[in-house]
Design goal:
Blueprint: H1 3-7, H2 11-17, E1 33-36, E2 49-52, E3 57-60, E4 66-68, H3 69-76, H4 82-88, H5 99-104
Antiparallel strand pairs: 1-2, 2-3, 3-4
Length: 108
């Protein structure tokens, strides 16, 4: 998975489709950030984790866990491959074709 594909990942759609509540306003949500309950804290109900909409970097202001969205996906979806999620929720039609798909479509 390329960094461009990861930067175009629509985490909001992914989380909404999987019924993960997101917060767009409140004391813990800054401009350009989306808040959510932190899965690393264990019992966070105050929306202490923020994901930057541009960089896809997250920070929890309670437990201090930080990282790229891929680390968050691994925690939220332990039974799913994060590359599959990046492909499914990539924006702008930048999904790479698999080798099998290329054979079926003549290499396009």
């Amino acid at each position: 998975m390329t960094s461009k594909q990861k930067s175009n990942f629509d985490f909001e759609k992914c989380f909404n489709d999987n019924h993960i509540p997101l917060f767009y306003s409140g004391s813990n949500v800054g401009k350009g950030w989306v808040g959510m309950n932190c899965p690393f804290c264990g019992n966070d109900t105050g929306g202490h984790l923020g994901v930057n909409k541009t960089t896809k970097i997250f920070t929890c202001w309670k437990c201090k866990t930080k990282g790229h969205i891929e680390k968050l996906l691994t925690k939220l979806f332990p039974n799913k491959n994060s590359d599959d999620l990046f492909r499914k929720y990539g924006k702008g039609g930048i999904v790479q074709s698999t080798t099998q798909e290329k054979k079926q479509t003549g290499g396009f």
